[in-house]
Amino acid sequence: MRRRALAALGILAFLGAAYWIIGRIQYRLKVMDVEEYEPRSTLKVPAHPKTRAKFPFIDVHGHQWFMPVADLDPLVKEMDELNMGLMVNLSGYRGTLLEWSLKNVAEHHAKRFLIFVNLDLEKVDDVPALVAQLESGVKQGAAGLKVFKGFGLTDKDKDGKRIAIDDPRLAPVWEKCGELQVPVLIHSGEPSPFWSPKDRFNERWLELKQEPDRYRPPDRFPPFEQIVAEQHRLFARHPKTKFIDAHLGWFGNDLARLGKLFDERPNVYTEIGAVLAELGRQPRFAREWLIRYQDRVLFGKDAYKKEEYYVYFRVLETADEYFDYYRKRHAHWKMYGLDLPDEVLKKIYFENALALFPQIDRAAFR
To answer: pLDDT (tens digit, 9 = 90+) per residue, 233-264?
Structure first.
C-alpha cells in the first residue's frame, strides 16, 4: 500500500511538473511583442482633438492615382470637411493620362486641384524628348514636375548604371523647369535609419520588420549621405529652378541641417508629408525652427486618408501633450503640439503655396 501511495504521489508530482512546464511554454508562445503592445495611457491632460484645420489649407503632396477616371465629388466633399481648399496631385502621369486628369478636373472641380507631370527619367539618353514631354505637359496645364524616389536610388540608364540625382545629362530638364517657372517636387532617398543595422538600436526597426523591402543594404544601394550630397549639388547647380524637397528632405530628425540647406539655397523649399511624427516629438525646437523658416515650409500629407489629417491639425495648432500618431511603425513615440502662431500657420497652410503657384484662385484663401 505504501509503495502504491508513493508511486501515485510520484506520478502526480511528474504530472504537476509537466503541467507547469507546458504552461510556461504556452505562456512564452503567447507573449506579445511590440507590434501588439498598445498601452492605454492613464495620463490626464487637456486634449483638443481637431477634425478641421483652423485656416483653409493647400496640400502640396497628394496622390490620386485614378484621377483620369475618378468621380471627384466624394473627395471634394471630404476636402470641404477638412477645410482643404486645394490638393496638388503629384501623380499626374504624362501624355494621354495627364490630359484625361486635367480634363476631369477642368470639367468638375477646376479650382480644387493642381496636377504635376511625371517624366520617365530613366530615358536619360534622350533628354530632348524628356524636355519636350515636360513642355507639352506644362502647356496642357501641369503645374509642376514630380520626381519619384526611384530616381537616384534604383533608376538605371540603358547601360544598367544607376542614374545619379545630379547626372549632368539631365541638366536641361531642370533648367527648363526654371524657364517655365514650374517647381520640382523631388523625393530623394528614405529615412536614414533604413541604411543602419536592423538591430535593437534602430528606431525604425518596427517599420523594417513590417516592410522588409524598405531596408537599404550597402551592397545594393548607394549610401544615404551620397544621395543627399547628389541632391544638394542639384539644387546648387540650378539656382533659378525652385525645388520642393519632399518629406523635410529626410532631415526631420536633424532640423538644424535642413536649416543650413535653406540658408545656402534660397531656391529650396520643403513640405511635411509623412514626417509629421518628427516634428511632434520635438515640439519646442520644431516650433522655433518653423517660426524661423516659416517662408520655406509647405503643408503636405502624402497618402490620402481623411482621419489622418486630424493629427496634423492637432500637432500644428494645439499645445496638447502625449497623444498618438496615426501609424505606429512610423512613430512608436507620442506626439506633442507645436501651438504655432496664426501667422506661421497661414504660411504653412496656404501662403507659401500661393507664392509658388500663381494659377491658384486666391479667393478661397484669406
So the answer is: 999 999 999 999 999 999 999 999 999 999 99
Number of folded domains that form the chain: 1
Asked whether residue 41 is domain-assigned, the answer is: no
The answer to whether residue 14 sits within a structural domain is no
Q: What is the largest CA-CA distance in the chain?
A: 104
pTM: 0.91
29 within some domain: no
Q: How far apart are CA 186 and CA 145, in angstroms?
A: 8
**pLDDT tens column, 317-330:** 999 999 999 999 99
Which CATH number belongs to the domain containing residue 133 in this structure? 3.20.20.140
Of residues 138 and 19, the one with the higher pLDDT is 138
Domain containing residue 186: 57-364
Cβ contacts of 336-343, under 8 Å, gap ≥ 24: 336/280, 336/281, 336/283, 337/48, 337/280, 337/283, 338/279, 338/280, 338/283, 338/286, 338/287, 338/290, 339/283, 339/287, 340/287, 340/290, 340/291, 340/316, 341/291, 342/54, 342/55, 343/294
pLDDT digits (tens, 9 = 90+) for 283-292: 999 999 999 9
- Any domain includes 1: no
